[in-house]
Design goal:
The protein is α+β, with helices and mostly antiparallel strands and 133 residues long. The chain has helices at 14-29, 33-41, 43-52, 111-114, and strands at residues 56-59, 64-66, 76-80, 83-87, 98-102, 107-108, 122-125, 129-132. A four-stranded antiparallel beta sheet has the order 1-8-3-6.
Length: 133
């Protein structure tokens, strides 16, 4: 489910909808140190980031978040759930396949915020997950 499929949100005024977006996304956005400091300096700018540059995603177990070799369009904050991240020698500078478990409370793919980046591994949900992208 995504916000676009919730018909009731369309009945809200634009200002109320923006406040709802800000209230639900700000706690996730400010988990990143840069956005936390930026929010203290310019709260209005961070409101724009929340409303115009972020989205909430939900994944089911076994859903792929991204695959190795794809262009990284987003950084993600894992709010809830767990993932498995797998790197192979074909796409990463590793000698053998490496698998890591990634739990909630971390940012992944931060490089996508700063530069053009390709994913160096596959990331698949192992539980139901909620992410900020």
């Amino acid at each position: 489910i995504d916000e676009g499929s919730v018909v009731a949100l369309d009945t809200l005024s634009r200002s109320l909808r923006l406040e709802l977006i800000y209230a639900t996304r700000l706690p996730l956005v400010t988990q990143h140190p840069l956005f936390r400091v930026w929010g203290q300096m310019d709260q209005r700018a961070v409101k724009v980031v929340c409303s115009d540059c972020t989205d909430i995603k939900f994944l089911r177990p076994e859903d792929d978040l991204f695959l190795a070799g794809e262009i990284a369009h987003y950084a993600y904050y894992i709010s809830e759930g767990c993932f498995e991240y797998v790197q192979s020698p074909m796409f990463a500078m590793v000698d053998e396949e490496i698998t890591k478990n990634v739990a909630h409370g971390v940012w992944v793919c931060e490089a996508a915020l700063w530069c053009e980046w390709r994913h160096a591994g596959d990331m698949r949900a192992t539980t139901s997950c909620k992410l900020l992208s």
